[in-house]
Amino acid sequence: MITKVPRRARVLLPIAALVVTGCTVLSAILPSPPPPTTATVELRDLEGKIVGNATLTQMSDGVRLVLDARGLPAGGKAVHFHDAGRCEPPFSSAGGHFNPERKRHGLLNPDGPHAGDLANIRIGADGAGRLETMNYRVSLDPGTSSLFDTDGTALVIHAGPDDFSTDPTGNSGAPIACGVLSRTKTNGDEVGGPEGPRTRP
After folding, report:
1. CA-to-CA distance for 167 and 169, rounded, in angstroms?
2. What is the DSSP letter of 93?
3. What is the pTM of this model?
4. Element holding 12 (H helix, E strand)
5. CA Rg value for the chain
6. Calpha distance 35→8 (Å, rounded)
7. Which of 50, 83, 92, 186 has the highest local Cβ count within 10 Å?
8. Per-residue CA distances from 73 to 29, 77, 160 (Å)
9. Which is nearest to 82 in space by CA: 22, 24, 41, 136?
10. pLDDT for 127-172, tens place per residue?
11. pLDDT tens digits, residue range 30-66?
12. Domain topology for 38-184
């Protein structure tokens, strides 16, 4: 028994095949959107011991930070991006907070905040803590707010919590851990830290 295909179906089937073929060709020709820019940080304490790792991901409106810390004293700790990618103990080499717009310190300060101001991390009795946060004032891509300038940027954990208002450091105490941001390739390999100029006002 031979089943006849309706005339309308005989017309539509070749069109459908052309549409599918066209989509396949276009997907092969058009480039895929580039993967987001990412960076990593390995934080060390004043004795050189690794006490944390962080991953930064460029989002459409800012940078997402995920920080895992371990081996630190319990309690709230301030976390900031500092202006220079240098972490020689006692970490004063990292300079002040990343602040290209020259604002006052503090997420609650009406004249702030610094671009490098971040939320506090809570360290438990076991010495571990995790911080997941967004910073909408910085970027991993080129520009005036980029964390990758000629001398790089450091991520610093302080001895105490940030009060989010007192200039210039939020009464957060001395730095106890520091790590330099390193840009990563899409396959996860590090490709270095400082790169590209950052314009300062």
Report:
1. 5
2. G
3. 0.78
4. helix 7-29
5. 24
6. 44
7. 83
8. 54, 9, 10
9. 41
10. 999 999 999 999 999 999 999 988 999 999 999 999 999 999 999 9
11. 666 667 799 999 999 999 999 999 999 999 999 999 9
12. Immunoglobulin-like (2.60.40)
